[in-house]
Design brief:
The structure is a homodimer of 228-residue chains. Chain A is mainly alpha-helical. The first copy, chain A, has helices at residues 12-31, 38-45, 49-55, 59-82, 88-103, 107-114, 132-147, 155-178, 185-204, 208-226. In chain A, α5 packs antiparallel against α7 (132-147), α7 packs across α8 (155-178) and α8 packs antiparallel against α9. Chain A starts with 11 loop residues before the first helix and ends with a helix. The first copy, chain A, binds a DNA duplex (30 and 30 nucleotides) through residues 11-13, 16, 37-39, 47-51, 53-54, 57-59.
DNA sequence: CGGTCGTATTGAACACGTTCAAAGGAGGCG
DNA sequence: CGCCTCCTTTGAACGTGTTCAATACGACCG
């Protein structure tokens, strides 16, 4: 993991690739996804449209890069937001609000972006094989949320909880995409209202009456995430 | 509801509209959504492409019609599947499996279809204003599932349960879209395994420890579905 | 220096969804 | 019939994402 790899200077191809990507992401932010044409990206980057397709199979694949960059930002922001906080509710709330903060400026074109998430055959789907690294990066955030808290959680649940919280965030994202309130205030409100419920539900998991249901559910979730 | 309306013979426009729609849906089934061009639909129907756009604002809107037709089928199938069954699990299971049965042949192109569901600005989204009638039709199925069963359910939950079950089905659909197992066997399996869990969770709603959490959750759901 | 091979780059061409000004029809009225 | 009006229909044209054969570049070798 920490081996010293000889740092090659970026080849000509990698430079062009980075140039195209940076230009594309900038134009996406300025003019939205649908409002940005491949010709415009190529022209702004000073290359031909064919050249852009030499490095990216499709316009959608440029989104993949956008997604990855924002996930990376989320990891950073979440880390610092949780540093001095041990309460599970506070940690979870900070991480979720952090995601909304980061993505707020892209809210307008995020719809035409997340819609690919529901496409089973698209590599852009968060469930696809191509998204495994990005998904695990985000899941590790939630693992940190749980592990770094002082909450008492049943071990069986503890192991699967990060995946469940990731799913919970997916639901929030879906709400956020449809949220047209100014500043996506309703999404923030939804977070503030659901986080305590989620934490309470987690706490309830230790009760006797629930253990049967919980165990069966966890076994199901485990068998699904294991070999989908 | 049962008023006698004078039955006008379908005008020329309505005939053309129906012709285009039937042709489109047939081609969608035969060649998939992306594989069917507007030009092909027009040619097959014997009209011009401009004429198709006179009746349908976009290719997506043809999907809306497809969605509506299948929802209608689901209502029929669900009704007969539940006729002689009072057990909540059996009723719920029959309705959900019925949906998968109906949509099985469209599974391959359903992905490029349901992806619009996640787009906040698309009228095709099941959360959009345009989808309210279709959504209420499906929700009424689940109301029937609950009301026609012999299960004892807390009144507060009973009122909101159809909406929650609709949401549950949305989750199953999302899984189904990504399900590549032969005959979408894994989706059927998921239904068979989750239905008992859902029903047990409903039954648990009467326990003391859960009432607080349940009431808060229901209030939240109510405020969301009320004025989104 | 010339030649060769793999990488980069080009831009015209293609098929698609969509638009729109123009034309066609069908019924009503004088 | 002639004229008008409204609904219907047409097909060329536009801008888009994408493809591909052709070309240019650059490093290495003899």
């Amino acid at each position: 993991m920490a081996e010293t790899v000889p740092v090659e200077p970026p080849s000509r191809g990698e430079q062009t690739r980075a140039l195209i990507l940076d230009t594309a992401l900038r134009l996406f932010e300025e003019q939205g996804y649908e409002g940005t044409t491949m010709r415009a990206i190529a022209a702004e980057a000073g290359v031909s449209v064919g050249n852009a397709y030499y490095y990216f199979d499709s316009k959608e694949q440029l989104i993949q890069a956008f997604y990855g960059r924002n996930a990376q930002r989320h990891v950073q922001v979440a880390g610092s937001a949780m540093r001095d906080e041990r309460d599970l509710s506070s940690r979870l709330r900070a991480v979720l609000r952090g995601w909304v903060d980061i993505n707020e400026r892209y809210h307008e074109f995020a719809g035409s972006f997340f819609k690919h998430a529901a496409d089973g055959r698209s590599p852009l789907s968060p469930f696809s094989r191509e998204s495994v690294p990005a998904r695990e990066a985000v899941t590790s955030i939630f693992r940190d949320v749980v592990e770094g808290s002082d909450a008492k959680i049943a071990p069986a649940l503890r192991a699967e909880l990060p995946n469940l919280l990731w799913l919970y965030q997916m639901g929030l994202v879906l709400y956020w995409v449809h949220d047209r309130s100014p500043g996506t205030a309703k999404t923030y409100e939804l977070i503030d209202r659901t986080v305590p419920l989620v934490v309470r539900a987690i706490a309830l998991s230790r009760f006797r009456v629930l253990r049967g249901l919980l165990d069966d559910t966890l076994e199901l979730v485990g068998s699904l995430t294991g070999k989908p």
